[in-house]
Every structure is written in structure tokens, then in C-alpha cells.
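Hello Y.,

Per our agreement to keep a running log of every chain we model this quarter, I'm adding this entry. I've kept the format consistent with earlier entries: sequence first, then predicted structure.
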Amino acid sequence: MDQSVERILVIDDDKELCSLLTTYLKPEGFEVEEAHDGKKGIEMALSRKYSLLVLDVMLPGRLNGFNILQHIRAKTALPVLMLSARGEDIDRIVGLEMGADDYLTKPFNPRELLARIRTILRRSRSVIEEVIVGEHAIRYKVGDTELDCGTRVAYCANEPVKLTAVEFHLLELLIQNAGQVVTRDKLTKDVLDRTLSPYDRSIDVHVSKLRKKLGHRSFGAERIKSIRGSGYIYTIPSSPEKVLTANIEK
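Predicted structure for the entry above:
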């Protein structure tokens, strides 16, 4: 695979839409390939030729977008942007909980699609670069949770926790501000790189997934507390030896 080229796979049975996406994305420096059914889409997605997958929820046959996402997530961390014409919150929530990186409702502005794609790719590249380069290993520890920002690995109770790039960035921001409220607006802007809209619950779904992976409670206290009408706070345990620590190792 030519590392200088960003290849995108679109799995959607709407051939006209696929053609429009190819026409729009090609001048922006992307190569686009298409699959119009689930079986072919999975086969292509697992070939490791692509930087990102654009995946429609509604597909003909036995395999819908959620089925395909489940197959892909079992074998690869390929970034996935899901599309749906239904615009229902349940679709968005299910997609994000199953491991999609982001979600966009049809019809959409091509510029919005391009912005989402670039954000996801930038986020996935930054994880790879930090693992490889890692000049300064920054570590944060709050209670039983520890983040190694050099290797992008999270630990809970001394056990590694498998987090997506979005989840790690979210946890990093919350832990950096442990004991303080971080607004949903800031989390959406810093983690998802977009402005929070009135019905956008994406950041809440990511927080929910993070809670499940880390456990809801730490040393008897709620780990990530919801502050109604504002945002979230990562709780600092009351025991003095379990407060926030951060260090830089050269």
C-alpha cells in the first residue's frame, strides 16, 4: 500500500451516492473504492488496504451496517464512519457502542463528510506517531487509573485496558482535569473536533463506553460523574495517596 495515499472504502448499495463521493473526494487527495453488499464489503475491509471505511447502516441482504461493523471490529481497528438515512438516535448510539469512530446522517453536506473523515484520520495518525516517536512519555495517575501518553496505553488496577483513539483522548482530557467539571462542549470540541449541536449525544455514548471498560466506581466513589446540564468530572479519591500525579520521563 502506498503510504502517501489515503484510500477510503465506501460500503453502500446506493451506487449514485458512491459515485458522487468518489467525484468529491478524489480532488481532495483520496482514492475511493466501493462495495455494494455486506459480504464483498467485509472481504475488502479486511484486506488492510484502506485508511478509513465509510459504512452505510441500511444494506440489502442479511448483512446490515451493524453486522459488518461487528465483523470488522473483531479483526481490525480500521477507522469507521457510519452513515444512516434514518437519523434515529438509537442507530447512532448502537453504532458508536459497537466501535464506530463517528456517525453522519443522510442527507449530508459533502464538506461535513470531508471534515469528519479528516478528523478521524488525523486522530488515528496521531496515535501511531506517538507510539512510534514517544520522545516524552507523559504519565497520569488518578486513583487506580493510569495513562501512559507516550505509548497510548491505559491501565486500571494495574491491568491494561483496550481503548479506542477517541476513548483514550477522552480519558486523557478528563484525567488532566480531574476534580473539575469538563463541559460537553469542550469534550466534543477537543475529542471529536466539532461543535456540539443540540441533539448530538456522541460524547455521552463514548463516556458510557469508557465507564464500562474502566468500571463505574473507584475506591468507593463514582469514577466519572455526570454533572447535569454541564458535563463530566473525573473524581479524585479522598485518600491523600491517591491524588492526581503526572510526570514526564525523558
